[in-house]
Structures are given as structure tokens and as C-alpha cells.
Amino acid sequence: MRKWVPIVLLLSAFAFAVEKPKPPTITGDYQETRSADVYTGQCFANGEMGTAGDQALLAWRIARGAWLGQDLAGLSVVAAVKASATLGDPYADPYPARAVIIIDQRASAEQRAALIEFARHMAGPLLARIERVIVAPIDMQVLHQAEQHGRATLRAGTFAAIETRAIGAKDHLCGNEETFYPPLTPTSHSMPAVATTDRYEGPGLGVSWTLHDKRSAFVGSFAEAGQ
Fold first, then answer.
1. By the 8 A CB rule, do 194 and 214 touch?
2. What are the strands, taking DSSP E only, across the chain?
3. Domain boundaries, the chain
4. What are the backbone dihedrals phi and psi of residue 2, each rounded to the nearest 5 degrees, phi first?
């Protein structure tokens, strides 16, 4: 007598055998600058805590992927942040922080909304209080060739600019430098760099800054599950 396996059992086994599709990934380049050195020694870091490091620029350029159903490939978003204390100081609370978002002018209204939510997702409480949203042309470049290691540029209208280079032997001032602070947002790869230019001149934060030649930058990439 032939025995038949119940259809329900067959369907259950098939359901377990089929791997659930993974959500699509959004990937791209990332830049960050701070008003305190991120690659430094303990003595230099202690000297800046409480007096610097409460300002930051965060920038993402999406290479491929979507967010909230919007294809964001080729678009960029920048955040300028003014915190309440040195970002990364374990003994001080940087929140609340104020932020200004700069959105790529090439984005549609729907893409602009998705870019804002993507930046909020990546930066968390740093972007909980957005004071202003600005639409401007954004040109963000991270050079991936080996000979251009650590080099990146950002122009966000007339409001924000970043230029970086690799850290070299002359940037070791005390001999025990390390990556003292991690990046402020999730990255799949990052390296500290020298910010030859770190500038924000815009509304919303009550402060502007122009800094040069600080070991205060990160250059990297991100890969995040889409939403």
C-alpha cells in the first residue's frame, strides 16, 4: 500500500527550504569632519574635550540603492551638526544637538524626503532636531585609487565644504596617536584623515566654522539594508 505524505507537511518543508529574500542594500561613500581631532593621542584629546568637538559635518553619497521606495542612486545628503558637548566625550552629554540638512538639488520632492529619513536613520539622535532643510547643488567625491588614499572632497552649495588627505608621518605629533573616536554613523569601512578644509557657513545652527589641517576627518563607505 502506497503511503502519501500529507500536503501540509510538504508545503511546510518547502517553506523552510526556501531562503527568505534579503532586503536590498543601499551603499555609497561617506565623509565626516569634527571640530576636534579624531586621530590623536590621549593628551591632545583631553585638551580638546569640553572646548572643541561639538561641531560636525556628515555627508553621504548614494552609489546604488533605495530608501522608502525611492531610488537614490547618484544623490547626496549632508548634515551640519552643533552638539551640546564634545561628540564622543564619555563624561558629557552631547544632546540635544541641532542640525541643518542640505539636500541634493537634483532630487525630486519624494527623493528629498527619502534622503532626509535616510540621514536620520544613519545618524540617529544627532539629527533628531532639524532646524533647517536647504536644497543646494552637492558635489561629493571620494577617490578610491591607491595613490589617492584618504583623499575626498565635498561642496554643498556655498554652505559646506570638505577637503581631506591621508595622514602622514608629519601628522604624528606625540608618537602615540590612534583613532581615538569612532565615526559618528555606521560605516562598512572608514579611515581617519586630515581635513585640510572643514567649513560650514549657513543658517540654523547659530555658528559657522572654517578649520584647516586638523586630523579630524573620516573617509569611508556604508552599506545599509534598505527600507
1. yes
2. 25-34, 39-40, 55-64, 66-67, 70-71, 76-82, 98-104, 130-136, 138-142, 152-156, 160-165, 178-179, 189-200, 209-211, 214-225
3. 24-225
4. -80, 135
Cα→Cα distances 1→5, 7, 10, 209, Å: 13, 18, 20, 85
Chain centroid offset of residue 154 CA: 13
pTM of the model: 0.88
**Other Cβ atoms closer than 10 A to 69:** 9
The H or E element that residue 47 is part of is helix 42-48
- Residue 103, CA distances (Å) to 106, 128, 150, 158, 220 in order: 9, 17, 24, 13, 20
Task: Give me 73's grid cell.
Answer: 542612486
21-79 residue pLDDT tens: 555 699 999 999 999 999 998 877 888 888 899 999 999 999 999 999 999 999 999 99
User: In sequence order, which ranges of 70-158 are alpha helices (DSSP H)?
Assistant: 109-123
